[in-house]
């Protein structure tokens, strides 16, 4: 029977911290590994030991089998937990662990290989009697894929054979879209998995993404732990998951669970795994894939079963039998998880980067927050472009689905995250949407017309947010609680007189007048704030701990979060919406961080240029592809906003670009009143 005493976690961020916590609870010594950007991560502070394994690039650090095994040898670790992603589904890594006499906390390499190739996995499932989606995998020429797509019938889904996480996946609705989709999916799949092969599946419209958590041991026992609904997705990646599924009754749960267990047994599975299905509106279900690892969304299963799945993984890896049989698994209550990402929903959910200025997760009963950041740190932690942009997971439990939903909303509102743009406001709006409240969200919902308003670019700041920003700005400078360097001083008048202030938010400049109001001599100051096109407001900051503040505006007490950037800009979050304010300096030009004014195309995020599709002098039309960028393993296509002629192309394939960097210029054609030159 395999035994071990020291566990190395070959991953990063929230999953590394989560595994280390359980391992230490069970009495195992723990080892963390880290790349250069992760040196101050939470997992490093939790582990007994930690080893530096390389620079930021994943291929040179977390994906380096040699570096991971060397760290295990150096520290005397005798077991490795791969977390999820990175090496978790790498059969060669599992074999390398065995060769080094290390216990691999995961399934046998043969099981990983059986499910790692989607086409082979599908064939195995058909043999095992598990229902599958109609599709094709075989010869990879564009001509053959075109013919097979026509035979299957549109709409179809292109999927990377070796894929996962939505990478290398493209929806195709019409034949004329297919060639470009194949090219794009192949490129992304090759970049992410070193395998550009694709398969085709019939797109099941209006379906839910429902997955079954399975567990198996080395003694022939296999059970399931119920289902998770993961239908709320963007870019084919999950953002909200819940257990149980709102529409799955006990009979359907048993049938899907039995199919999932059959899938696991068909490949000799051991450990934790997830069998993913499409659930059609008529109750039929189809095998999608099996993830041979722990899933990001596993906490919702833990909450409704009252089990620790990492503990079960470690017990199975140590050769022990499963602690329970199927009849003992009971689902109680409801759990919902929301993934907090550094991304911009208003810009197609493009990943965002930047320094984390403030992070303080909510603390309320029934809420769990899994993350990899140090709480309270306001400098030195960054969200870069090398790894997945997920920052944290908030998981709420309730006796009912509605109870869990309300708790999750409260948890999101109370969580302070300032720095890079993120999707917190979007998550709140989605949880409040009638479709989610009613349990009617399908995989197509987030990107549908019904949810268009959820994806709209964030509106400008409210009058209340502007007034509060002005007061925070004024009180910060007055009280010397922030460095004066770079701050305006000309408007700071003597006590008792009005102060004039101009703040800029995006491209909008707001002129404000702040006048102190009479009040208690020993109480906080009260300010009258006047701004154009809004009623005057009276504001008092009642409490301020340097991150969170409580204020009163016209007799209404509320809370907000704020932080200062290194360039003396104020980030203020009010009503779960964040805006950045700066002193208006007319002599300084400003540029939007998006795609410019149509004629100047700027990078929407940091990233690497994968493709340049135009040359100077080329004529372009609105919507035409200009460049392809890759950030955090996600590809995005930059298109022309206007018709015209390409003036400059300032980047080439392989170049790294910064957010807002000028990429391409487009010269609009002359109007009829303008003479051509």
What's this entry about, in short?
With 677 residues, this protein is an alpha+beta fold.
List the helices and strands and how they pair.
Layout: E1 6-9, H1 13-25, E2 29-35, H2 42-46, E3 49-54, H3 65-75, E4 79-81, H4 91-99, E5 103-104, H5 109-116, H6 118-127, E6 135-136, H7 142-152, E7 156-160, E8 170-172, H8 178-193, E9 198-202, E10 208-216, E11 222-234, E12 237-243, H9 250-266, E13 271-279, E14 285-291, H10 298-305, H11 309-317, E15 334-341, E16 343-344, E17 350-351, E18 354-355, E19 358-360, E20 367-371, E21 382-383, E22 390-398, H12 401-414, E23 416-418, H13 424-432, H14 434-437, H15 463-478, E24 499-505, E25 508-517, E26 526-531, E27 534-544, E28 548-553, E29 556-564, E30 570-574, E31 577-583, E32 600-602, E33 607-612, E34 619-620, E35 625-631, E36 634-639, E37 644-649, E38 656-657, E39 662-667
Helix pairs in contact: 4-5, 12-13
Your description of this structure?
- The protein is α+β, with helices and mostly antiparallel strands.
- The chain folds into five domains: 6-105, Rossmann fold; 134-202, Dna Ligase, domain 1; 208-455, ATP-grasp fold, B domain (D-amino Acid Aminotransferase, Chain A, domain 1, 2-Layer Sandwich), CATH 3.30.470.20; 463-583, Glycoprotein, Type 4 Pilin (2-Layer Sandwich), CATH 3.30.700.30; 600-667, RNA polymerase II/Efflux pump adaptor protein, barrel-sandwich hybrid domain (OB fold (Dihydrolipoamide Acetyltransferase, E2P), Beta Barrel).
- The chain contains 15 helices and 39 strands.
- The strands form nine sheets. It has an eight-stranded antiparallel sheet, with helices on both faces. Strands 24-25-26-27-28-29-30-31 form an eight-stranded antiparallel barrel. It has a five-stranded parallel sheet with strand order 3-2-1-4-5.
- Helix 12 (401-414) packs antiparallel against helix 13.
- The chain is globular and about 80 Å long.
- The N and C termini lie far apart (83 Å).
- 47% of the residues are buried.
